[in-house]
Amino acid sequence: MVNPVVIKVKAPSSGTVQIYNGSELVGTKEMSGDSEADIKLNALPEGTYRLTARTVRGGERSAPVSLPAITVVDPGMPELISPVTDTVFGPGMVNIRAKAPAGSKSLVLNGDTILAGVEGKGAEVVTIPAPDGAYDQLVLVTEKSGLRGASIPVTGSISVDSGSSVYLSGPTVENGYATFALMLKNFTGARSLYAVEAHLVYNNSDLKYTGPARPTDEPSTVFDGGQTVEILREVKGGTQNELIYAGAQFAAGSTGADNLNINGEKLIVRIPLQVLNTDVTPKADLVYVKIVNSESGTVYELPVRSAARLNGNTGRGPL
C-alpha cells in the first residue's frame, strides 16, 4: 500500500470506529447504522503494520479487533528537471531529466502506457530516454515494489525534428553593425561533430568584417569553453568579400576529443559586420558548410551556391 492508506470497515450500529497503530490513533470515522465506510489513515512510514480497530459508542469502547497485516511502501515524490517548455529534440534524443528517491523508479507515462523508466538516485539527476514521437500530456511518476506514488505533468509538448541543418539567422542591426547568427540543428549519433567550417559572402560595398580574428567566447554555444578554438577570416574579392569561419574542439594530451552531440538548435557563432551602406538592407549568404567528426570523416557538406565561389577564390578553408 501507499499513503494515504485507506481501510474499509463495517460497524453493526452507529458509533465511531477508531484505528490504532499500537497506542497511536491513526484514523477515525463516524458510522451510521449497519454500513460500510472507508477510513483514510494518517501518513505511515514505510514498514509492516498490524493495526487494531475499536468502536466507541456512548462513551463505551469495544475490545480491539486485529486487522490483517499491511505493508506501506513510499515511492516518494518525483521532481521534473527538464523539459519545462515546448521542446523539439533531434532523432533518438528525446529524454526527460528528473530526480526520484533512491530505491524508487522514475517512470514516464503517455496515458496508461509506460514509455520509459530508470532507477532513482536521490538528489542526483537521472536521464530517462524515451522513444521518438510527438507528446503533449506526458506524466512523471514514481514506482516502488510495483506500487506507484505521486505523479506530476511533464511541462510543454515534445516533438522530433529529424533534419540536420546549418543556417544563417538575422541580422540584428545596431550601432552601425549587422550581426548574423550562424546556427546548427540536430547533429547527433552518426552526425555528431568535431569541427565546423562555414563560408559567408556579402557585397564589399555594403558590409565589412572588422574583427576580431578569434570570436569572443560566448556561453552555451557549440564551441564553448577552454578546449575549443574558433577563427574568422575575411577574404577580399572584386565586388564581394568572403568570411571564413572555422571552429573545433580539442583535448589536451594524446587522447582525441570526443564528438559533440547537438540536440535541437544551437548557436555556433555571432558574426558582426560593419554596415557601409545604410541605403540597403544588410544581406549575407551562407555559401558553403563542411562538418567533420574526430576521425576526419565528413558528416555534413552543403554547397549552397556551388557556382559562386567568390570571384575566382577557391573557397578552401581549414578543414
Topology:
Blueprint: E1 6-11, E2 15-21, E3 24-31, E4 35-40, E5 47-49, E6 52-57, E7 60-61, E8 65-66, E9 70-72, E10 79-82, E11 87-89, E12 95-99, E13 105-110, E14 113-119, E15 126-129, E16 138-144, E17 147-153, E18 158-160, E19 165-174, E20 177-187, E21 195-203, E22 207-208, E23 228-235, E24 240-249, E25 262-275, E26 285-292, E27 298-303
Parallel strand pairs: 11-18
Antiparallel strand pairs: 1-4, 2-3, 2-6, 5-9, 6-7, 6-8, 10-12, 12-15, 13-14, 13-16, 16-17, 19-20, 20-25, 21-24, 21-26, 22-25, 23-24, 26-27
Largest sheet: 5 strands, antiparallel
The total count of strands amounts to: 27
Query: What's the rounded overall pLDDT mean?
Result: 88
% residues in beta strands? over 45%
Structural class based on helices, strands and sheet pairing: mainly beta
N to C succession of SSEs: EEEEEEEEEEEEEEEEEEEEEEEEEEE
Radius of gyration: 32 Å
Give the structure's gist in a few sentences.
Strands 2, 3, 6, 7 and 8 form a five-stranded antiparallel sheet that branches. A five-stranded antiparallel sheet has the order 23-24-21-26-27, with no helix packed on it.
Report on the architecture of this protein.
The protein is an all-beta fold and 319 residues long. Helices cover 0% and strands 52% of the residues. It has no helices and 27 strands. It has strands at residues 6-11, 15-21, 24-31, 35-40, 47-49, 52-57, 60-61, 65-66, 70-72, 79-82, 87-89, 95-99, 105-110, 113-119, 126-129, 138-144, 147-153, 158-160, 165-174, 177-187, 195-203, 207-208, 228-235, 240-249, 262-275, 285-292, 298-303. The strands form 8 sheets. Strands 2, 3, 6, 7 and 8 form a 5-stranded antiparallel beta sheet that branches. A hairpin with a 2-residue loop joins strand 16 and strand 17 (147-153). The chain is rod-shaped. The model is unreliable at 304-316 (pLDDT under 50).
